[in-house]
């Protein structure tokens, strides 16, 4: 209650700014991102790859494998991946604002887009529980929050599914993936996740939706998905805010 009151008071005293462009927001612009910025986001439309979530060119339609994921013969351990769009332009700026700019409120915008995509693609009924990709405890402490978890919470609310943020644990601290090759990325994260002792019953026989902010090669996602399945999950789907190509440097 106190936090709510303080927040309301701060809004009155300090003008709010768009989390991406920095433009002062009008009173009626209640979201964290200015409408003209939101309109610039290229959302995944009717053309996409179900295997890795990568948006495709107009007219390609729904395909089960694309140039971005063809080389991953083993797959990602997931049945389908849903991505809002490519990791570029405004969508990339929103992801950066969330991850490094402390702009937690933009997670609600990302969650709303993901909820819409999951409904449109008929995946909501296939999901039992939602699991955010965990951060290593030190990184979580440095940032103050896990960006995947702040996307997962409002998403879970609109889908009316439980969020299990304590089930999966990142056991080891890994090298930053950005500078590594696809093969190095896979080796870097393989075996880094574990299901916490005593929590396997939460996912046993369940269909899990894994949430992350950005997917590049899918190495991290794959390692987490395989870990969940080994612990008894029946199926794993994934929803990510943005699908990056390897040269995006993330
Ligand atoms: Zn693909």
Care to describe what's here?
The chain has helices spanning 2-13, 35-38, 89-99, 106-120, 137-143, 147-159, 182-189, 200-203, 219-230; strands at 48-49, 62-63, 81-86, 129-132, 168-170, 193-195, 207-215, 235-243. By secondary structure, the protein is α/β, with parallel strands linked by helices. The protein has 2 domains: 1-40, no CATH class; 71-248, Rossmann fold. The chain has a 4-stranded parallel sheet with strand order 3-8-7-4, with helices on both faces. Helix 4 (106-120) packs across helix 6 and helix 7 runs parallel beside helix 9. It is globular and about 50 Å long. The structure holds zinc ion. The site of zinc ion has 8 residues, from loops.
Helix-strand sequence: HHEEEHHEHHEHEHEHE
User: How many distinct domains?
Assistant: 2
What integer is the average pLDDT? 91
Beginning-to-end CA distance, first to last residue: 38 Å
Widest sheet, order of strands: 3-8-7-4
Taking all Cα atoms into account, the compactness measure Rg is 18 Å
Annotated CATH architecture of the largest domain: 3-Layer(aba) Sandwich
Per DSSP E runs of 2 or more residues, the count of β-strands stands at: 8
- Just give the CATH class of the largest domain: Alpha Beta
Helix content: 25-40%
Q: Indicate the proportion of strand residues.
A: 15-25%
State the secondary-structure class.
Answer: alpha/beta
Q: Work out the helix count.
A: 9
> Quick one: overall form?
globular
The main pleated sheet reads as:
4 strands, parallel
Low-confidence stretches: none
- CATH topology description of the largest domain: Rossmann fold
* Assembly status: single chain
Distinct ligands, ions and cofactors found in the model: zinc ion
